[in-house]
Amino acid sequence: MNIEEMSKKIEALGIVPVVKLDDAEDAVPLAKALIAGGMSAEQAKSLSNARLFGGVNGNFGTGVTGMVQNSGNWEDTKGIAETYLNNMGALYTEDHWGEHVEGVFKAALVNTDTVVQSRSSNSWGPLSLDHVYEFTGGLSLAARHVTGKDPGAYFNDLRTPGRPKVQEAGEAAMVEARSTVLNPKYINDIFLQVSLIMLIGLAAKNAILIVEYAKAKFNEGLSLRDAAIEGARLRVRPVIMTAFAFLMGVIPLIFATGSNAVARNVMGLGLFGGMLIATLIGIFAYPALFVWIGKMGKYEQKRTAKQQEMTNSEHHE
What we know:
Elements: H1 3-12, H2 24-36, H3 41-47, E1 53-54, H4 64-69, H5 78-87, E2 90-92, E3 97-100, H6 104-108, E4 114-119, H7 130-147, E5 152-157, E6 165-168, H8 169-179, H9 184-219, H10 224-254, H11 261-296, H12 299-316
Parallel strand pairs: 4-5
Antiparallel strand pairs: 1-2, 2-3, 5-6
């Protein structure tokens, strides 16, 4: 459902849309600002009741996200504010639906002192959703650009049915921070899981080094046991060298200090201990698994049967 369809449904219910309210107290400052910007008095009066603004040409994005992510390319937040004003300045009134009239959105923000965003889901928070800094942050910068002062930022917390509350943005951010980025259990769980994923890849690589050579020796005619021992003997040096280099590389993480040191310490300890154990056990476990799986799959019997079949075929020829 687009905005126009929603507006018609609201009117059908007998609810007067905000854009039709004749609030002289708010309309006069807006009209004065438009006239000061060079607009005719008649046009300024017709646009002075505009209250609903959105993306130009029905666009959803503000253009702010990319600028924030490339913060090294700008030094003044004025550019972000102007981008927001330009991309989110389309009017949605009865006479100007989706049109972008220069200066109207900016004039509508003249007396803005508060920015509010609704929050009805537990799946995101002020720190974890980019739309918060894109829309709420972008609008706050735009208001500061127009008024010269920072507006207050709040969340309408609607997550608990029947118990709505208003939460200051800083308070909402700290609530999420205490349960995530400042929570040692959260940090330990996340970064330890990342370490385990990395260890799985490294352990698999070491197993491939040994099993690949053992398989080649088995194909040459050695038994499963002899092939596994030969593969382990010839590949143990590169496995240990790789593990040793990796262990030396993660030591700085274990003793890291400063900002986010806990995350690096957890990851370093997980990688060091996991790699050490995986290497010491793997040197013996990989060849043993090769032999066990080979026995389960009856590889030696299948090889003998295949050789016998080839011999019989040659005799018939």
